[in-house]
Amino acid sequence: MTSPPPTDADTPRCVVVVPVKPPAHGKSRLVGLDDERRRQLAEAFALDTVQAAVATPGVARVLVVTDDFRLAAPMRALGAEVMPDGASEDLNETLVQAVAEVVRRWPGAVPVALCADLPGLRSAELAAALEDVVTQVDAGHAAFVRDRTGTGTTTYAAPAAQFAPQFGMESAARHAASGAVEVGASARSLRADVDDLLDLGAVLVGGVGPHTARACGRRATPLG
């Protein structure tokens, strides 16, 4: 069944697209951990990211793009919709294809790409950043959120017809050079992606969602 489109009451009227590699192939830079441990953590990061996005005021829908069939059921249980990845070797093409599906299902929505490795994401910070995103998109601009290191990107949005993400090495500089407007500088949890064990240690100090807490043997506490 096709979901109804966002209504005028959905403000900001965003559909958040979360691309998720099969966890068995993700988080290769978590060196020192065996494959199963990396798989568990990658899955936990994605589940916590999606759970926070689903709970964010103004997010009309969350669309998870993944070829991992085991993740489909828990993602749907969180309230997300799931579609297969049609270009799994190219993240940017994956996102372009997903946004075409967003346009088909929810015309008029603002498509927002969100990285799946934000286990400490706070819904309030995402909501505040999305308000700025919608302002820029309504003005015809792309927008992006720079990661904690300053070189990468955790979030990218643009009018659907201009949606051209440039994730990869030095993506923040490439997004800025393309004319995208930087937003979310104060959204610490939205900038705190986890690529390696140092990143993981940093987000554990600030607090993580229940799936990552459980995977790390921590007690889950509300992120607020």
Automatic annotation (TrEMBL):
<protein>
    <recommendedName>
        <fullName>2-phospho-L-lactate guanylyltransferase</fullName>
    </recommendedName>
</protein>
<keyword id="KW-0342">GTP-binding</keyword>
<keyword id="KW-0808">Transferase</keyword>
<keyword id="KW-0548">Nucleotidyltransferase</keyword>
<dbReference type="Pfam" id="PF01983">
    <property type="entry name" value="CofC"/>
</dbReference>
<keyword id="KW-0547">Nucleotide-binding</keyword>
<dbReference type="InterPro" id="IPR002835">
    <property type="entry name" value="CofC"/>
</dbReference>
<dbReference type="InterPro" id="IPR029044">
    <property type="entry name" value="Nucleotide-diphossugar_trans"/>
</dbReference>
